[in-house]
Amino acid sequence: MVNDLYQKIGLLFLKKNLIQLAFQFFISALIGVIYAFMIINETIGGYINKVLPSMDGPDLHQYLPIVITVLIYSCFIQRKERIFLEKISFSCLHILIAILSFISSLIVIMMVQFRMMY
């Protein structure tokens, strides 16, 4: 009886932690999507190009707003009991998710705009 209770409570905490972890990565992906919409917008994209100029198309430094935003978000949400290497790898994973979501949403936006032109 008591063992079943512990198993149910353990599964509840595991499910809650899994949902929290998925939500954290969802926020990182959302940051990437928002940045893609900002790049496409002519006004905001113009400001970004003035602040982070580029000679031949987008350069690596133009992804800095995503990296910095996700890094701050990742550092803010991490628990204190994690070791330093875990924190770094967790932050890198958040950044990778945000950049991949940025690139994929940018491709989708450009495909939609291209189809609307023709």
Describe the structure.
The chain is 82% helix and 0% strand. Helix 1 packs antiparallel against helix 3 and helix 3 (64-77) crosses helix 4 (84-117). It has one domain (25-117). The longest helix has 39 residues, at 2-40. The protein has helices at residues 2-40, 42-51, 64-77, 84-117. It has four helices and no strands. The mean pLDDT is 77. The protein is mainly alpha-helical and 118 residues long. 13% of the residues are buried.
Give the C-alpha Rg. 19 Å
Mean pLDDT: 77
Distance between the termini: 67 Å
Low-pLDDT runs: none
Please tell me what the overall shape is.
globular
- The figure for the number of domains is 1
**Portion of residues within helices:** over 70%
Following the backbone from N to C, one meets helices and strands in this order, namely HHHH
What fraction of the residues are assigned to beta strands by DSSP? under 5%
Structural class call reads mainly alpha
**Mind describing the biggest β-sheet?**
none
Note the total helix count.
4
How many strands appear in the DSSP assignment?
A: 0
